[in-house]
Amino acid sequence: MVIIPTLDAPNGAADAEKLLKEVFCQRRKVTCFIFGDTAEAREVASRADVRAEDHPARQVVWVPDADVLQSADAVLAPLQRHAFPQERAVFFNLESKLSSTLAGADARSFAKLEVAFARALAGDLAGETI
User: Which of 72, 96, 98, 127 is 20 to 30 A (C-alpha) from 118?
Assistant: First the structure.
């Protein structure tokens, strides 16, 4: 799991933006972003990481402080649009396009996380049906 620095960290905003761009713009893995620093967000991030573990084309990125996106440039605009509400899983496909989102009990479900990762790998976009 990649954990993005918070604004409180030394050089937090710059380091967060650089790391977010690296993981968001790569084209080798689908990415599940988790936003928020609550117990629920940590649980969702942990469960998503279990589903991504040892899979070469999946990654989980936990963004405890979504405010790091406030000053981000246009490259990260898709993340800005989906960072709130927090405590949900947001999946992007290999082309960095939104594939799906999960919230509440769905975001904590191993089965739903697996389906969301599979849809992202298949290139599905949000709103499309399989």
Answer: 72
